[in-house]
């Protein structure tokens, strides 16, 4: 049996010159978008997992906010999942995420405690919060010790606590719906 090389080339030319219908083009584009979306999701998840804070063996769950009020994260998270948000006044991404955290905090559906990392004195932090109309509870981590204890690598970082234990950790820009979903999931599991 012999194979005609010319007929093989002719078949390939015929297949490549066939025009796709609009439906075939749309399906091709959709398949490409889904493939790239899946690759992005996998890469994003791996990076987020690698950069997320890690709960210390003996975490400091008794904190004092910049106004001197005691915060007991263990008891807060025993009642319902609690979001801990690590941020800084100097962080450009945090200026995008902090309004979302403020909305979540003022909705009063879940407790929110923020930890401002190396953001100046209590007076400077107070001025920044008032200037931006942020009403969330804030601990001033002036030396970055709390963040270092949690092995934080990037700001913003988030931790969801339930019963004094970390259920989730994440980093970067998070939309309000994502944070609500994560808190809700922690409340049912």
Descriptive key words:
single chain; 189 residues; alpha/beta; five-stranded mixed β-sheet; two-stranded antiparallel ribbon; 7 helices; 7 strands; 49% helix
Folded structure, characterized:
By secondary structure, the chain is of the alpha/beta class. Helix content is 49%, strand content 19%. The protein has helices at 5-17, 22-51, 73-79, 94-107, 122-131, 145-149, 176-188; strands spanning 62-64, 70-72, 82-87, 112-117, 137-141, 157-162, 165-171. Strands 5-4-3-6-7 form a 5-stranded mixed sheet. It has a two-stranded antiparallel ribbon with strand order 1-2. The mean pLDDT is 89.
**In what order do the strands lie side by side in the largest sheet?**
5-4-3-6-7
In whole angstroms, the N-to-C terminal distance is: 66 Å
Low-confidence segments: none
Strand portion: 15-25%
Percent of residues in helices: 40-55%
Mean pLDDT: 89
Enumerate how many helices there are, as a single number.
7
Radius of gyration: 25 Å
Secondary structure class reads: alpha/beta
Structure summarized in a few sentences:
This protein is of the alpha/beta class. It has seven helices and seven strands; from the N terminus they run ααββαβαβαβαββα.
Task: Give the secondary structure arrangement, pairings included.
Blueprint: H1 5-17, H2 22-51, E1 62-64, E2 70-72, H3 73-79, E3 82-87, H4 94-107, E4 112-117, H5 122-131, E5 137-141, H6 145-149, E6 157-162, E7 165-171, H7 176-188
Parallel strand pairs: 3-4, 4-5
Antiparallel strand pairs: 1-2, 3-6, 6-7
């Amino acid at each position: 049996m012999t194979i005609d090389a010319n007929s093989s080339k002719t078949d390939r030319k015929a297949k490549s010159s066939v025009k796709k219908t609009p439906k075939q083009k749309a399906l091709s584009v959709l398949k490409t978008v889904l493939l790239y979306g899946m690759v992005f999701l996998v890469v994003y998840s791996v990076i987020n997992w690698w950069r997320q804070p890690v709960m210390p063996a003996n975490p400091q769950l008794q904190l004092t906010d910049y106004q001197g009020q005691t915060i007991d994260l263990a008891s807060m998270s025993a009642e319902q999942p609690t979001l801990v948000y690590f941020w800084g006044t100097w962080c450009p991404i945090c200026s995008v995420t902090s309004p979302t955290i403020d909305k979540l905090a003022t909705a009063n559906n879940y407790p929110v405690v923020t930890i401002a990392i190396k953001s100046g004195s209590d007076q400077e932090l107070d001025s920044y919060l008032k200037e931006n109309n942020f009403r969330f509870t804030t601990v001033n981590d002036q030396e970055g010790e709390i963040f270092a204890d949690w092995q934080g690598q990037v700001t913003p970082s988030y931790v969801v606590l339930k019963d004094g234990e970390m259920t989730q950790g994440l980093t970067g820009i998070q939309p309000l719906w994502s944070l609500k979903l994560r808190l809700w999931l922690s409340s049912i599991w």
